[in-house]
Amino acid sequence: MEFKRLYMWVFYRLLEAIFFLFLALLEILSPKIFRLVSMPALTLLIAILVPRRRIIKNLRQAFGEIYSAATKKGLAKGVQEHFVRNLVDCFVQLNQPDHIRDIATIQGMENLVAALAKGRGVIALGAHIGNFVLVGARLGVEGYRFHTLFRLPSDERLKGIINRYLVPRFYQQVIPSRPKLVAVRQILSRLKRNEIVFILGDNLKKGKVETLLFGQRVPSPRGPVSLALRSGAAVVPLYLIRNYQGGMELIIEPEIALRRNGRLSEDITQNTHHIVGYLEKLIRRYPDQWNWLTVRMRSYQTNTGRPQPKMNPFQPL
After folding, report:
1. Which helix (H) or strand (E) holds 95?
2. Among 2, 61, 82, 150, which is most exposed with the fewest C-beta within 10 angstroms?
3. Nearest-angstrom CA–CA distance, 234 and 144
4. Which tens digit of pLDDT belongs to each residue from 132-153?
5. Is the pLDDT confidence value at 315 over 50?
6. Which DSSP string do the residues of 192-230 spell out, in sequence order?
7. What is the average pLDDT across 227-244?
8. Which is nearest to 137 in space by CA: 102, 189, 185?
9. 69-95 and 31-49 are packed helices; what angle lies between their axes, rounded to 10 degrees?
10. What separation in angstroms does the CA of 252 have from each of 57, 127, 194?
11. Cβ–Cβ under 8 Å, residues 27 and 20
């Protein structure tokens, strides 16, 4: 336990040092030169923290033999490259408040406007797709009150960095996911004020509803559906992806209609299955932009009665 605590302390201090180093470079370099300087360093860092062999293993677990070995290798390379470019954009955003407006267009704003017109708030359903960190920045710079449910690190110095730099410069407020009851009260309060709460739906690591993702069992949290049913808030999928021209697009899809049959537990289960099914389709659409976080898949019994081969959990990146 002491070794693990020391390891995490050293890791957090390393992250802190890297953050302030790049922040200092932003002060003295133009954005173009900063990109040229930072991308090789960040490429090396991501290659160490997110090794390609791990990504290929995750692709194999999710998609089986749908993709060839060469295709999986190419997708894994794409995941790393998108990761680096997203990090660079996050750093530039810290120094240039309008950067996100310059690089990202919005498609489907009418869907968000229609959902907010109902007056009960919006649960923005996201995933670890594209640059999910800057989703709130793109809407916040347009004047929308945006809140992100986020698990803050235990390290107080990193919390201070998030509150001092990321929150104001990314145009959003953070709702800590722990303690849970406090988080629920804060979410319901924001929804009551007809504001937007961003929840990443693919945190499929712990949950009380068992669903299928890529044909394998995943423990899915009931939170997004339960909160929507309790508050009457609209569930609107949105994600910030990078297009083939290198630009960013915030895609806002139409509201997901939730089924309400009068039996709360059944409604939560059925709607959670529906949302996980939607997320699977989204991941299949952008496999090279999914950051492969916090998913644990288990084998299940097929209708033939024979168990599927046992899969190891996804390793968090």
Report:
1. helix 69-95
2. 2
3. 16
4. 999 999 999 999 999 999 999 9
5. no
6. HTT-EEEEETT-TTS-SEEEEETTEEEEE--HHHHHHHH
7. 96
8. 102
9. 130
10. 31, 13, 17
11. no
DSSP letter for 60, please: H
Identify the residue whose tokens are 């044909």.
215
Mean pLDDT of 23-46: 95
Q: Are 93 and 168 spatial neighbours (Cβ–Cβ below 8 Å)?
A: no
Return d(Cα 65, Cα 304) in angstroms, integer: 21
Strands, E assignment, 58-145:
104-107, 122-126
Coil, helix or strand for 243? coil
Say how far apart CA 311 and CA 307 lie, in whole Å. 11
CA–CA distances in Å: residue 242 to residues 10, 111, 126, 129, 130: 33, 20, 15, 10, 7
The angle that helices 31-49 and 2-28 make with each other, rounded to 10 degrees, is 160
Question: Residue 113 is encoded by which pair of tokens?
Answer: 């406007």
Nearest to 105 by CA among 56, 82, 138, 78: 138
Q: Is the pLDDT of residue 306 over 80?
A: no
Alpha carbon dihedral 193, 264, 278, 213, in 10-degree steps, equals 130
Task: Check whether the bond before 224 is cis (ω within 30° of 0).
Answer: no
Residue with tokens 């923290």: 49
Of residues 177, 175, 275, 151, the one with CA closest to residue 225: 275
What Rg do the C-alpha atoms of the chain give, in angstroms? 20
Tell me how many degrees the CA angle 312-314-317 measures, rounded to the nearest 5. Answer: 145
* Contacts of residue 116, Cβ cutoff 8 Å, sequence gap at least 6: 122, 194, 196, 234
Compute the half-sphere exposure of residue 151: CA atoms within 13 Å on the CB side of its CA: 4
Strand pairing report for 196-200 and 146-150 = parallel
Angle between helices 180-192 and 223-231 (to 10 degrees): 40
